[in-house]
Write a structure and sequence with these properties.
single chain, 144 residues, alpha+beta, 9-stranded antiparallel beta sheet, 19% helix
């Protein structure tokens, strides 16, 4: 009985990730051509500490969905390599995350990122990715 319950939970988590990131999973190699991954950034945690990261991509808690873009609730792409900073990040425990995005071209937009893209996958020790929930951060700065 425990195995069936565990399997049901895993299936439910996977379904949420797939539904939340449907736009991101439909991206083709041609669509992402010319966009960079493995981006360097500095994140500031909610407790005020900062750390340098290498952003590998975004996804949900079950896995990475895209290495080059996040999807907003309007199904628009937010290309990660076009970002200068992310500020005023909402601290919702579930669902979409709202934040103020500043782009390298100088434009600024308030965007709501789908729940299936709220987890940042960053390079961790020994090459294993670490997960950071966007809601645990107060800001992200990308160098020029």
């Amino acid at each position: 009985m425990k195995i069936r319950s565990f399997a049901s939970r895993i299936a439910a988590i996977a379904s949420v990730c797939l539904v939340g990131s449907a736009g991101a999973s439909s991206i083709t190699a041609q669509d992402s051509e010319g966009h960079e991954s493995s981006l360097r950034a500095t994140v500031t945690m909610a407790d005020g500490t900062s750390r340098a990261i290498t952003l590998q991509g975004v996804g949900c808690t079950a896995g990475i969905c895209s290495r080059v873009r996040a999807t907003d609730v309007k199904a628009d792409s937010v290309w990660l390599d076009g970002l200068a900073s992310v500020r005023e990040i909402s601290h919702e425990t579930e669902g979409p995350i709202k934040a103020l995005f500043t782009f390298k071209d100088g434009s600024v937009r308030r965007i709501s990122i789908v729940a299936g893209n709220r987890v940042l996958y960053v390079q961790g020790r020994f090459g294993r990715p670490q997960k950071l929930d966007l809601a645990s951060l107060t800001k992200i700065d990308f160098p020029n």
